[in-house]
Amino acid sequence: xxxxxxxxRMSIQPGKGQLFLVGLGPxxxxxxxxxxxxxxxxxEVVIGYSGYVDQIRDITQxxxxxxxxxxxxxxxxxxxxxxxxxxKSVAVxxxxxxxxxxxxxxxxxxxxxxxxxxxxxxxxxxPGISALQSAAALLGSPLMQDFCAISLSDLMTPWExxxxxxxxxxxxxxxVVLYNPRSRKRQRHIAEAREILLAVRGEDTPVGxxxxxxxxxxxxxxxxxxxxxxxFEDVDMFTTVxxxxxxxxxxxNRMITPxxxxxxxxxxxxxxAPYLKRSL
Length: 280
Prior knowledge:
Radius of gyration: 21 Å
Largest sheet: 5 strands, parallel
Order of helices and strands: EHEHEHEHEHEEHEHEEEEE
Number of strands: 13
Number of helices: 7
Helix content: 10-25%
Shape: elongated
């Protein structure tokens, strides 16, 4: 085992290549970490999806900005690595957390391909509040038991692999968080995900939909797995879908998963989700 003890302190060193993989959180400035603000304020270059770059213009006014469209993640990563090897300090931004369906992996992939020695350029991942965390906070307490996050985008992962993960999550009675649930080109994926879960879970299983968490146009809604089909038109790439497990219920307009299966709450039986259709 190789130990890396001690907290690393952020240190921007002019002339030395550095990469900061920054999670911006859900969008609200007061939910961005001080460490993220420091990295963005101190670096020379900021790289990211144009929509995310626009939301931090006030703290990156003096920086070189490289903004790209969705789908150009590997191009962003390649540019960041190129600049860092050239001695620049670069911040690569992601919504939520850079290490959860964000830009951390593409950058590390590019570094590995370039023969990176692990030291030069210096690389630091700056964590942020993820979409699943912000959605859960707005919905109540849906993630109190084991849960999993599954992206429905098949741009980089074959749909058959995604389907197997959905089936496993359904059988394992995980609370399921769906990222990238629906886009203009991917209309059917969320419907198939619902069908897979309905094969095991009851129609009354609570589902929470959070769109643009902590932003001016934030929208939160509660439905059930049975009625989710009627909400598909309201679901897009800015929506996080949280699907409860067999113990999740709704009370006081909040989605609640108890701490454990033994934790039978005082809620009325009518508020509780049904257990699994079949034993595991």
